[in-house]
Amino acid sequence: MKQLLALSDDDLTAFLKSIGEKPYRAGQIYEWVFKKNARDFAAMANLPSPLKERLARHFRIASLNVCEPEVSGDGTVRVNLSAPDGVVFPAVILDAARPTGARKIPSSSACLSSQAGCPVGCAFCASGGELKRNLTRGEIVESFLAARDFVKSRGDDAAKISGVLFMGQGEPLLNYENVTGAISDISAEGKIALAQRHITLSTVGIVTGIRRLAADGFKVRLAVSLHAADDDLRKKLIPRASSKVSTVLEAALAYAKSSKTRLTFECVMIKGVTDTPRRLEELALAILRFISGHAPVVVNLIPFNENPRAGAEASYFRASDDKTLYLARGYLVSRGIFTIIRRNKGRDISSACGQLGV
Ligand code: SAH
Ligand code: SF4
Hints:
It is built from 10 helices and 15 strands. By secondary structure, the protein is of the alpha/beta class. The chain has 2 domains: 2-60, DNA polymerase, domain 1; 65-349, Aldolase class I (TIM Barrel, Alpha-Beta Barrel). The strands form 3 sheets. Strands 3, 4, 5, 6, 7, 10, 11, 12, 13, 14 and 15 form an 11-stranded mixed sheet that branches. Strands 1-2 form a two-stranded parallel sheet. Strands 8-9 form a two-stranded antiparallel sheet. The structure holds S-adenosyl-L-homocysteine and iron/sulfur cluster (SF4). Iron/sulfur cluster binds next to loops.
């Protein structure tokens, strides 16, 4: 049986045509799945019974098993999703639950995976591990729906997911078709209808993928995991980074211009490795040279999450201390670069950046 959500709109319309149905049925089916949360064709009251039966014989709507959510003290929730072939991957919901002591439930974001495992093998990351396989378009969309179901289950009528981050397991631009298919579903009016400017795709800098995003007219926000502006250091941190920093920055700028979006550069702050005055100066110079003045830009300094499950090299890495983080931000700001320190969420349930190994 096929996954309904792994199909593009054209695939579903072609299937409907092949069985003598009108294309508008596709819109009705999507309305049931995305707006009315149907997980069973039998519930689709405005479809004729023979069509419902036929669809049920060909497709299943929900293909993932949603494991018991883990809730962190800071309001972060991790949900593991398991596929019929035994592959398990996480989705993290930021600000999903009321943090200890807080009165109001804030609005939430979903941090989605793009692959089970990751082939890039960054030295500091435990989210990756070996690549098991690409997630399908349907699995990515389903992980969003699981996050939305969780948020709605809090019993708050206004509850919704107001942002999506492709910052979970995997490198999204190495699974281009399925990730962009999922982005189309998440942003389509007749489906989930979350505007692309509320979706951020984080990439290690796959230049062909960035160029393709621009050529295909996407308007999601791009976050580039730069970490270091020096090619040799960057290559040590990201062994499979195949493009030079200057090439990555040029592609990112071209995307920001064509999509009219803001660029984010992420830098994991590792003590004595990426947080030194020399490395920060290199970073500032590269951003000033290639980006500033041409497109809006923000640097996110990400406190390094130490993780015993990361590779051998990572066990030598230490997190920068707070004072160094503030000095780093102060320096970049003094060079005219808007810089923030990313809050570290979900550490107690292994859900923070780089901790998403299962
Ligand atoms: N593969 C993509 C997206 C997922 S990783 C990418 O690398 O951009 C999301 C972010 O978490 C990246 O910026 C990544 O560098 C960061 N990250 C990975 N390991 C980390 C760690 N141990 N501590 C803090 N951030 C980490
Ligand atoms: Fe993969 Fe991103 Fe982790 Fe690197 S940081 S191993 S690209 S998930």
